[in-house]
Amino acid sequence: MGRSRRLPLTKDEFDSIYAKVTRLTVEVLIRTEDGVLLTRRGIEPCLGQWHLPGGTVLFGESLVDAVRRVARDELDVEVAVGEQLGVIEYPNLLASGYPGWPLGLVFDTRIVAGVPARTEQSEHIAYFRTLPHDVMHDQAVFITGLGLATPART
Q1: pLDDT tens-digit profile of 128-154?
Q2: Checking DSSP bridges between strand 22-32 and strand 101-113, what pairing results, if any?
Q3: 35-41 and 22-32 as β-strands: parallel, antiparallel, unpaired?
Q4: φ and ψ at 75, to 5 degrees?
């Protein structure tokens, strides 16, 4: 499972800062013949929704190191980091009242060690060729826009 570490900001400091500025995040996109790997969020924001594993880039951390850390923390796997596939903006998250503006850089990755496992941040892990109806909207738009999965069936 995820490794604990001392973070440079308290939760209150983090929330205060990122309610006022854009927060740079990385999104870990893992795909196999079974589809795109998503986890069902076990924490806020977007509790209970399916999403790409992702997280804030920490001060002084390279993007590649952030991707590897997020994969370890959220999936308990080691990944090889490939190309950046694009950027996800989150207007729907902002419109929902989320107190911040994340900007996610999406990286293509592949698992090189371990098997994806649930962590405190995820209730379930699954691969999808057709997205579920309750995937984070802005991520669903990105994933389907690249042709990596088909939209949810209505």
Answers
A1: 999 999 999 999 999 999 999 999 987
A2: parallel
A3: antiparallel
A4: -130, -10
From CA 111, how far away is CA 150, in angstroms rounded? Answer: 23
Report CA dihedral (54, 121, 91, 132) to the nearest 10 degrees: 100
> 14-28: buried (b, 16+ CB within 10 Å) or exposed (e) per residue?
eeeebeeeebbbbbb
User: 74: helix, coil or strand?
Assistant: helix
Name 134's bridge partners: none
pTM tops 0.85: yes
Residue 123, judged by CB atoms within 10 A of its CB (0-12, 13-18, 19+), counts as: middle
Within 13 Å and on the Cβ side, how many CA atoms surround 4?
1
Which amino acid is it at 98? Answer: Y
**Contacts (Cβ under 8 Å, ≥6 apart) of 44:** none
